Amino acid sequence: MHTSLPDFDMPNEEQVHLAAESFRLLSDPTRIKILWALLQGESSVACLAELADAAPTAVSQHLAKLRLAGLVKGRREGTFVYYSAADEHVRRLLTEGLFHADHIDRAPQPATRHSP
Predict the structure, then answer these.
(1) Torsion of CA 95, 96, 98, 99, to 10 degrees
(2) DSSP 8-state code for residue 84
(3) Do 30 and 62 contact (CB within 8 A), yes or no?
(4) Torsion sign (Cα): 98, 47, 26, 14
(5) Residue 90 is inside which H or E element, if any?
(6) pLDDT, tens digit, for every residue of 9-63?
């Protein structure tokens, strides 16, 4: 049915897997706070911990996962590492997610019956 549509296109398996992994990593509120802070500018673990109201060790663990997923990058300066969002894609992804959260209809939905 869909294949008859002229512009129908499904993402390939690798794209689907990588997108799902990015969404999985963004499913943690602390990580969203960390990324949002990094979208405002480069920051250290200590500063991010304060902004996210989390322990520095927890923030370091979150950053390690976000870095491996390509969502953040680090820059070493002496003994300190300063983190930033990886690119503009991260900004768009997070901005759209937060915009969507602002527009979710929280009103109870009436129960609907589905026919078998």
Answers:
(1) 110
(2) E
(3) yes
(4) positive
(5) helix 88-102
(6) 888 999 999 889 888 988 999 999 999 999 999 999 999 999 999 999 999 999 9
- Asked if 34 contacts 46 with a C-beta cutoff of 8 angstroms, the reply is no
Positive or negative CA dihedral for 53, 40, 62, 49?
Answer: negative
Task: Assess contact for 39 and 94: CB atoms under 8 A.
Answer: yes
Q: CA 102 to CA 112: how far, in whole Å? A: 25
Give CA torsion, residues 67, 93, 58, 69, to 10 deg.
-20
β-pair partners for 77: 80
Short-list 49, 52, 57, 84, CA closest to 70: 84
- pLDDT tens string 75-115: 999 999 999 999 999 999 999 888 888 888 777 667 666 55
